């Protein structure tokens, strides 16, 4: 009888463990969909291959994104920056001039700057989201203005309206764009930010070759660390 009780207890504990795993999996699944709207869209439309690619690729999206530098450069750098953080201004004042002088002006680099925002920012229509939304609207209208806007955002304390008044020839059209629902690009961006947790560490740098084989630096790297990381990628390119 004792053996039967022990077996029954073990079976009950095993069933309880399975139930806990199912509940945990369901919670994580719902959280994943809540924070990554692009994935939710893929689920709703049955685009399961796109879901697989979104997770397997695990790299920044560069398609149709504004950048600085040579469009034919093999060396790519993606910098995620919080436009409201003091670390962003420090990065731009200390490291950006080096990147600009040694790699952008020489035509060896494509530099992408991505303003960080979370799903909570999108839902709350926060200032961080507004910066990303403004860049998205400018990208659709005048490609060069989007990058000029992003550089101004992360390099100064200037507000959106002030920057737009200098860059945008049609403020009414821009305002109409800002009132629209989040675009596909915005949904892709927030999914990317949630996937890489870019808001957890500022800045976050991805340095790679043609958008592949990234080395990741978190926080503001020293000049030596940044130079060594770039040098390692250039060695792979045969330089």
Please tag this protein with its features.
239 residues; 2 domains; 5 strands; 62% helix; 12% strand
Structure description:
The chain is of the alpha+beta class and 239 residues long. It has two domains: 2-57; 68-236, Glutaredoxin (3-Layer(aba) Sandwich), CATH 3.40.30.10. Helices cover 62% and strands 12% of the residues. It has twelve helices and five strands. The chain has helices at residues 2-35, 37-45, 48-57, 86-94, 96-104, 119-124, 127-141, 143-155, 160-167, 171-178, 184-196, 223-236, and strands spanning 68-69, 75-81, 109-115, 204-209, 212-218. A five-stranded mixed beta sheet has the order 1-3-2-4-5. A hairpin with a 2-residue loop joins strand 4 and strand 5 (212-218). Helix 1 (2-35) crosses helix 2 (37-45). The longest helix is centred in the N-terminal third of the chain and has 34 residues, at 2-35. The chain starts with a helix and ends with a helix. Mean pLDDT is 79; it is low at 24-35.
Give me the CATH architecture of the largest domain, please: 3-Layer(aba) Sandwich
SSE class? alpha+beta
Approximate strand percentage: 5-15%
Order of helices and strands, N to C? HHHEEHHEHHHHHHEEH
Number of strands: 5
Supply the number of structural domains.
Answer: 2
- The named CATH superfamily of the largest domain: Glutaredoxin
Output the radius of gyration.
22 Å
Q: What proportion of the residues is helical, as a percent range?
A: 55-70%
Categorize the overall geometry: globular
Using the coordinates shown, work out and report the CATH topology of the largest domain.
Glutaredoxin
**What is the average per-residue confidence, as pLDDT, rounded to a whole number?**
79
**Total number of helical segments?**
12
CATH class of the largest domain: Alpha Beta
Strand order of the largest sheet: 1-3-2-4-5
């Amino acid at each position: 009888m004792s053996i039967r009780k022990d077996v029954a207890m073990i079976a009950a504990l095993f069933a309880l463990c399975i139930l806990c795993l199912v509940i945990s999996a369901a919670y994580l699944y719902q959280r994943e969909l809540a924070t990554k709207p692009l994935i939710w869209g893929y689920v709703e439309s049955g685009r399961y291959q796109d879901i697989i690619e979104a997770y397997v690729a695990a790299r920044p999206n560069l398609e149709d994104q504004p950048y600085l530098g040579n469009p034919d450069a093999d060396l790519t750098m993606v910098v995620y920056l919080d436009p409201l953080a003091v670390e962003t201004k420090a990065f731009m004042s200390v490291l950006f001039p080096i990147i600009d002088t040694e790699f952008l002006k020489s035509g060896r680099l494509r530099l992408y700057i991505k303003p960080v925002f979370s799903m909570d920012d999108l839902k709350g229509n926060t200032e961080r989201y507004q910066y990303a939304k403004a860049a998205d609207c400018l990208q659709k209208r005048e490609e060069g203005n989007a990058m000029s806007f992003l550089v101004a955002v992360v390099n100064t304390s200037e507000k959106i309206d002030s920057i737009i008044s200098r860059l945008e020839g049609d403020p009414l059209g821009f305002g109409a764009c800002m009132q629209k629902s989040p675009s596909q690009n915005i949904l892709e961006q927030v999914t990317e930010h949630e996937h890489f947790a870019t808001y957890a560490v500022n800045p976050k740098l991805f340095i790679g070759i043609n958008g592949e084989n990234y080395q990741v630096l978190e926080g503001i790297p020293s000049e030596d660390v940044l130079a060594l990381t770039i040098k390692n990628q250039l060695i792979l390119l045969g330089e």
